[in-house]
Amino acid sequence: MIRIKNTLILLLVTAFFFTAFAGAIDDGPRPGYRDTPIIPGQKWRVHDSERPYPVVVDPGPGTFSKGRPADAVVLLDDSGDLSAWSSGGKEARWAFVEGAMEARPGSGNISTRESFGDIQLHIEFRTPPEVKGSSQGRGNSGVFLMERYEIQVLDSYENPTYPDGQCAAFYGQWPPSVNACRGPGQWQSYDILFTAPRFSGEGLLLSPARATVLHNGIVVHDHREFLGPTSHRSKPSYSKHGPTGKISLQDHGNPIRFRNVWLRRLDDASRSDSR
Predict the structure, then answer these.
(1) What is the pTM of this model?
(2) 10 — phi, psi (to 5°)?
(3) Burial class (CB in 10 A: 0-12, 13-18, 19+), 1
(4) CATH number, domain at 107?
(5) pLDDT tens per residue across span 30-41
(6) How does pLDDT run across 251-275, given as a tens digit for each residue?
């Protein structure tokens, strides 16, 4: 009887602290906005401060391999060669440090010299080991597909922010299904299957851009539709663009590192276009 009573007390205490912890996340002003447009097809506003946070899932320690498919286009390896990237058409101004490319604050975004359509993209990144800032000011960068469709990079480990702006979000549109972030200074990975949008000759949208995203090996978007190019505080909408585009990495003022970046072309358009 005493054992049962002690067990009940332990359960009640555990429930109390869990509730208190959850309340600590939700209480007080949350990062985000309540004066932005409603996202098309959703009940939430762009960067809505009241949108529920994705459940946290520990992805485990992870393992990384330098191996890649035989038909991969290598955009960054450990050789220090940054020739696949440029800053405004000129030599990329990011640094190469300890086998990785690092965004130096003020150096600007970088983009691939080649353009691509449908792709399988692998990219590894590391947010700074030293935690500085909070919300969007902590370990911020982004992977832009066709220079328009952003998969957010952020230190979202115990760092609340508006859900459609956390790590692995389709920025301003869709939060990831779960928060699979590792801690600051730990290497993480994205594996992205991206399908470019299709337009008619008259500029009508025939099919939207879509992506399946694995964050640290966990599916966080499953063939999910982009609602248009991503942007800050703005409602997404499509306008016709070419069948291929460059991949961009964002300089958001934080020293983010990237390594082992490669892709596979999945369509004829990207195979024939190397702008």
Answers:
(1) 0.87
(2) -60, -45
(3) exposed
(4) 2.60.120.560
(5) 999 999 999 999
(6) 999 999 999 999 999 986 554 444 3
